[in-house]
């Protein structure tokens, strides 16, 4: 969907293919309803995404996996922009003494980003509110087509 909701993230000291697969599965579970079209997943060419495990899981789930060409972060602009915001709004202004402290701050930021951060491209709504609004429009459209 195009609503910028962060539907899942992995927190850990390493990120292997098994972590990427697990995060993908959790994200799909939280977002996809029965009968929905599976999304296209776009990633960079990190080792976890070019792995056989990740490729097999995408194929098994009927998910299209697009990998951007090397050295073209502009082709993944939304996630690059998100990482820039995360760096600016959290990691540049806070210091952490433990991973647990950083993970807690990240969870709080994700809650803020999804539920309270206004996005100009989302009619000045937070992502979750925009997503709910779009669903009401879609439901209304389905209702009118049925009549």
Automatic annotation (TrEMBL):
Residues 1-134 form the Integrase catalytic domain. Gene3D superfamilies: Ribonuclease H-like superfamily/Ribonuclease H. It comes from Paenibacillus brasilensis. This is Integrase catalytic domain-containing protein. It holds the Pfam family rve_3. The lineage of its organism: Bacteria, Bacillati, Bacillota, Bacilli, Bacillales. Coiled coil: none annotated.
């Amino acid at each position: 969907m195009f609503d910028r909701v962060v539907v899942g993230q992995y927190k850990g000291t390493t990120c292997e293919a098994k972590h990427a697969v697990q995060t993908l599965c959790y994200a799909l579970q939280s977002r996809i309803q029965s009968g929905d079209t599976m999304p296209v997943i776009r990633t960079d060419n990190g080792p976890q995404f070019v792995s056989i495990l990740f490729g097999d899981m995408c194929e098994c789930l009927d998910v299209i996996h697009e990998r951007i060409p090397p050295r073209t972060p502009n082709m993944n602009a939304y996630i690059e922009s998100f990482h820039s915001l995360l760096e600016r709004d959290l990691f540049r202004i806070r210091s952490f003494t433990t991973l647990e402290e950083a993970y807690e701050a990240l969870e709080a930021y994700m809650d803020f980003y999804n539920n309270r951060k206004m996005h100009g491209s989302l009619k000045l709504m937070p992502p979750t509110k925009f997503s709910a609004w779009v669903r009401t429009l879609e439901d209304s459209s389905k209702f009118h087509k049925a009549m």
